[in-house]
Automatic annotation (TrEMBL):
InterPro entries in alphabetical order: CobQ/CobB/MinD/ParA_Nub-bd_dom, DNA_Partitioning_ATPase, P-loop_NTPase
Organism, as annotated: Paludisphaera borealis
Alphabetical keyword list: Hydrolase
Enzyme Commission code(s) on record: 3.6.-.-
Gene Ontology terms, MF aspect: hydrolase activity
Protein name stated in the entry: Chromosome-partitioning ATPase Soj
């Protein structure tokens, strides 16, 4: 089982959107996924309430209950636990990073978002967790995205797959769906599938390196 934490203290960066859509991308590959919602605002849980399908499973947890929730997920043979965290720096955020095998830091290509990244990266580095950045809500092209990518690449690995600003993400969320379900042939579905494939490869490579002590 792999534990993936979506984290950044910047509100609205796309943690919940990525958590849900990555979970559904993993399900498409026949994996069993549990989303743990650590956000007191519970926007993943809100999405789950609107959803008809029973999977991916979702549970709302307080940070003190996180280790137990993870142990139960392990016992129940989930392949992935995806943790959605609050958009503020809270003890629960640190607990979610500590629990992670792999962290995903969503970031919009704006100066304010970029400035908010270093404290999250500092916590991740202190806890020695592998992490990648994913640019989110980006324009389809342009200088702004390239500059943001250059800035983030000084701090760590940046996903080559970007999540573009598309209405499909909002409409799918409102319908209790992931974009892969909402518009299977759409551009959002295609980029989420690509992103998930890239994340899995990266995560497995890091895990292999850690297990064999290569770095
Ligand atoms: N790629 C996208 N295109 C268009 N809208 C998006 C995209 N990603 C996210 N959004 C919208 O932006 C808003 C914020 O996204 P989301 O809730 O995923 O961020 P968050 O990091 O979880 O926020 P918080 O810190 O408040 O939990 C939501 O309304 C969401 O629907
Ligand atoms: Mg959220």
């Amino acid at each position: 089982m792999r534990i993936i934490t979506l984290v950044t203290q910047k509100g609205g960066a796309g943690k919940t959107t990525l958590a849900i859509n990555c979970a559904i991308a993993a399900e498409r590959k026949k994996k069993r996924v549990l989303i743990l919602d650590l956000d007191p605002q519970a926007s993943s849980e809100g999405w789950y309430q609107d959803r008809e399908a029973e999977t991916p499973r979702l549970a709302k947890v307080d940070s003190w209950a996180l280790p137990e929730a993870i142990a139960k997920a392990q016992a129940a043979n989930f392949d992935y636990v995806v943790i959605d965290t609050p958009g503020r720096d809270e003890p629960s955020t640190t607990a979610a990073i500590r629990a992670a095998d792999f962290c995903i830091i969503p970031c919009r290509p704006t100066p304010v978002d970029l400035k908010a990244v270093p404290p999250t990266v500092a916590t991740i580095n202190r806890l020695k967790k592998p992490a990648v950045f994913v640019l989110t809500q980006t324009p389809a092209r342009g200088e702004r995205v390239r500059e943001a990518e250059a800035g983030l690449s000084m701090l760590g690995i940046v996903s080559p797959v970007r999540i573009i600003a598309r209405a499909a993400y909002q409409d799918a969320h409102g319908a209790g769906l992931g974009v892969i379900e909402y518009e299977p042939e759409g551009k959002a579905a295609a980029e989420v599938k690509q992103l998930w494939d890239w994340i899995v490869k990266k995560m497995e490579k890091v895990a292999y390196e850690q297990e064999t002590n290569i770095s």
